[in-house]
Design brief:
The complex is a heterodimer of chains A (129) and B (143).
Chain A: E1 4-8, E2 17-23, H1 28-39, H2 43-57, E3 67-69, E4 79-83, E5 87-94, E6 97-105, H3 109-127
Parallel strand pairs in A: 2-6
Antiparallel strand pairs in A: 1-2, 3-4, 4-5, 5-6
Chain B: H1 3-7, H2 10-31, H3 36-43, H4 47-54, H5 62-71, H6 83-104, E1 116-118, E2 124-130, E3 136-140
Antiparallel strand pairs in B: 1-2, 2-3
Helix pairs in contact in B: 3-4
Classes of the chains: A alpha+beta (129), B mainly alpha (143).
Chain lengths: 129, 143
């Protein structure tokens, strides 16, 4: 059984709590950010996504093209997508805010969306008594 | 990403200005009951430009930004703040909030707190003086 943990995202100032998920001490979002930083591609776009997260954390409105509720019909826990030209960041609703599950690329979004929903399912199952 | 790194990144500020513009234009549209076509006509700009702003993707000439702002009866005031000072103020603000939360319940008398907070429209305010717990005084701090 994988061990899930949540890490506070202190770089986001807002009324809502933003946390990122790690599985067995590995945080996919941190790895994604490191990859972006190392390759020096889209780092500026990622900073823009942080601004969108900050606005969402302050319950401000954002264009659908930047932040979207992508919850499928019948799903109990809300799903969100933050978007830039080339990047996607997937999140779910958490206690008092949002939990960032993973970050990915537009050209791999189909595969990463599937991965995101798989992680979400396992994470929520791990919380069941 | 560290907060400091974020505040020194072009992408963060670019997105901020684009979303600020999106908010202004959406409010204007709502307040005047206009759709995108009517809005473009009223402001004397192309529909494509309106779509770009409302998608949070505006990246036009300064003169276009000023035209749009004036057409919405808004003065496009730009402020420049020392970035290291901003980072320091945010850092102190966060520290003070933590202190305040920890000590709030222990205080019997009114006390002063100095901090910054971000309101939903992203304007910075300084909570300069708390006279009593029900009526904090909000004083604009020049951001």
């Amino acid at each position: 059984m994988p061990k899930f943990a949540l890490k506070e995202m202190n770089e986001i100032n807002g009324e809502q709590d933003f946390k990122k998920l790690s599985i067995d001490d590995n945080c996919q979002f941190d790895d994604f950010e490191k990859e972006i930083k190392d390759t020096k591609r889209y780092y500026s776009e990622l900073a823009g996504i942080y601004l969108y997260m900050e606005r969402a954390a302050n319950n401000a409105s954002l264009p659908d093209t930047k932040f979207k509720d992508i919850t499928p019909d019948g799903e109990k826990v809300k799903e969100y997508e933050f978007k830039s030209k080339h990047l996607r960041v997937y999140a779910i609703k958490g206690d008092g805010g949002k939990i960032i599950i993973l970050g990915g690329y537009k050209n791999k979004q189909k595969r990463e969306l599937k991965k995101f929903r798989g992680i979400k399912k396992r994470y929520l199952e791990s919380k069941e008594p | 990403m560290k907060r400091e790194e974020l505040l020194k990144n072009k992408g963060y500020w670019m997105a901020k200005i684009q979303i600020d513009l999106f908010n202004e234009l959406s409010d204007y549209m709502k307040n005047h009951g206009l759709n995108r076509t009517q809005l473009a006509k009223k402001l004397g700009v192309s529909k494509g430009y309106i779509s770009q702003v409302l998608n949070g993707d505006a990246n036009h000439k300064l003169s276009t930004l000023i035209d749009l702002s004036l057409a919405m009866d808004k003065a496009p005031i730009l402020n420049f703040t020392d970035i290291d000072q901003l980072i320091e103020e945010e850092r102190i603000g966060a520290k003070k909030i933590t202190w305040t939360l920890e000590n709030f319940s222990k205080q019997k008398e009114p006390f002063h707190i100095y901090t910054t907070q971000t309101d939903p429209s992203d304007k910075k305010f300084k909570l300069e003086k708390r006279v009593n717990f029900d009526q904090p005084q909000l004083v604009h701090n020049g951001y």
